[in-house]
Amino acid sequence: MAKQAETKKKQSKGLSSALVIFLCFVVGVLIYNFVFGSGSNFIDGNHDNNPLQGNMLGTIYKGGFVVPILLTWLLSVIVLSVERWIAINKCRGKADLTKFVANVKEKLEAEDISGAKELCAKQKGSVAAVVSAGLSTYEQMAKDTTGINKEQKVATINKTIEEATALEMPTMNQNLPVIATFTALGTLTGLFGTVLGMIRSFSALAGEGGTDSAALSVGISEALVNTAFGILTGALAVISYNFFTAKIDNISYAIDEIGFSIVGVFQTKH
Fold first, then answer.
1. 3-state secondary structure of 64
2. For residue range 96-119, what is the model confidence (pLDDT) as tens digits?
3. What is the CA radius of gyration of the chain?
4. Which member of 135, 210, 212, 243 has the lowest number of beta carbons within 10 Å of its beta carbon?
């Protein structure tokens, strides 16, 4: 079992969230400086001037140093969501999960354990791995002649399924806490940028010699751009987290359903 746990631990290593965030930060800084900050977006080709009228990229650039940070969070959410999509689909297996569950239950009712294990071999993924472990223990307990009573055999099957499930869950849940963190972090970072923009705007209003319209415009742009990026990041993170949590719940329900079937058939047939 220790060897199995070590093997599964190695298999569960997915994309490092720290590496993703670092790479997204690099990409975010490059986009901020060379795309949003391109001279073609500003008057006289100088990003120190105001953006060209109606130029959104230049306006975003005026959001200030908080923009590349928000870009980092946004890109990280997108990359980690794609990574979770790939990983969780692998956990579900090759064929439709509902059909797989129904086919395995059918094989169990017919006491065709070998057929059920063949289905697991074809299905692959976390659900198939857990079911296969439970079926192997089922066969062992069915052939056991050491005098162990039925309750102990059932407990052994249940324990095997629980242990196999525990080994598979880290693969499914990896990086989801990071995505959940971005639901609040994105919004708070955007709010921080908004406050900085409002401070700049009020400074322009209170300046000596009248209102500095250029500074006021930059301050308002900074506030609104950061607000928009913060809301977008938080919204995408919430949607992604809830979506993948629901998918994991469906996988867990499938494992539980087959696990109950394995135990139920064993109690009935033996």
1. coil
2. 899 999 999 999 888 899 999 999
3. 28
4. 210
